[in-house]
Write a structure and sequence with these properties.
two-stranded antiparallel ribbon; 2% strand
Length: 336
């Protein structure tokens, strides 16, 4: 047994150092809470080995510290505070209840309330993990597996202690369960950290993309400002020429048609510049618009590029419908 305890403390110390190392790198609180849990469990075992005058008080105190770290780790690892408000409140109430029980035990000097099978007291953790996993949080499965193994092996020890079973009493099932659980949960935290890192990378990509769009919008706005005045002047010249020809050459339809086509091309260029300018502007207020208008607006932006690359862009209207939202933002989504 002494040899196994030496292995247990050595292995647990490695787990503690591993989690401290990753906490220093990532600042993920789950690592820190799990370090507190492992250290408090080691202190509980040391307390059970070393007899002291106030042994029972310290034993119960250590047990309460273990419970607090279990609750804190559970809340942080499963993300209860962010995504599961009611479950987070339930765990908070459980923490308060355990603390009140401890205070009451200290006042009356009776600690029998904590002399219960710990496998039963901690079994709700498995149900909690199963529920969070059912809601789509993948790392919760490691939480369920880790605590499931630890609680199951602790249950064997509880049966031997409280029910008089004689199932290999010389084997420290509780400590074995804790070792297995420490490996699984340490791996689980690393999986969660990987998910957080990937989410941050995706957020950074979105921010970079948004910055590029903003820069492109500013560039298009500058270009449109520089082009708008020359186009307006050309349009004015065409109108003056049309007036001049009508007054002096009323029968020359060819020249008039050519001028009208030139005016249409100028209108098209002006509208295209307007489309580019409005495309990246954020709408302050929601408005109603047709879905086909969004598709048509996007085509006005990229139509020539698609045709140049022999890409067919076809809008099929089965049943057009109106949308009440931000048109420019939706157009950017369709374009992307």
């Amino acid at each position: 047994m002494e040899l196994f305890l030496g292995f247990y403390f050595g292995f647990t110390l490695m787990i503690v150092l591993y989690n401290l190392h990753w906490y220093a790198i990532t600042k993920e609180k789950s690592y820190l809470y799990y370090v507190g849990l492992r250290v408090s469990l080691m202190l509980t075992i040391v307390q059970s080995i070393l007899a002291t005058p106030l042994e029972e008080f310290y034993q119960v105190l250590n047990i309460n510290v273990v419970f607090m770290f279990v609750f804190a780790f559970t809340k942080e690892f499963l993300g209860l505070r962010k995504s599961f408000y009611r479950l987070n409140a339930f765990v908070n109430y459980a923490m308060i209840f355990v603390l009140l029980c401890f205070v009451y035990s200290v006042i009356v000097g009776n600690y029998e309330i904590f002399d219960k099978p710990y496998s039963i007291m901690t079994s709700p953790l498995i149900l909690l993990g199963c529920f969070v996993y059912s809601q789509g949080y993948a790392p919760a499965k490691y939480y369920v597996i880790g605590w499931g193994i630890a609680i199951s092996l602790t249950g064997i020890n509880d049966l031997n202690e409280y029910r008089g079973f004689d199932f290999y009493p010389e084997i420290p099932f509780t400590l074995i369960g804790q070792l297995i659980e420490s490996v699984i949960l340490s791996y689980a935290i690393s999986v969660k950290t990987g998910l957080i890192i990937r989410e941050k990378e995706e957020q950074e990509k979105v921010l970079i993309h948004q910055a590029k769009l903003a820069s492109m919008g500013q560039m298009l706005e500058n270009i449109s400002h520089q082009w708008r005045q020359p186009l307006n002047r050309i349009a004015t010249y065409i109108i003056n020429v049309q007036v001049y020809i009508r007054e002096r050459y009323n029968g020359d339809e060819y020249v008039m048609d050519a001028l009208e086509q030139s005016q249409l091309q100028l209108d098209y260029m002006s509208n295209t510049i307007e489309d580019f300018t409005n495309f990246n502007e954020k709408s302050e207020d929601e408005s109603g618009f047709l879905a086909s208008d969004v598709a048509a607006g996007v085509y006005n932006i990229v139509g020539l590029t698609l045709e140049k690359n022999e890409i067919v862009f076809e809008i099929i209207e089965h049943s057009d419908f109106s949308i009440y939202s931000y048109q420019s933002e939706l157009s950017q989504v369709v374009l992307n």
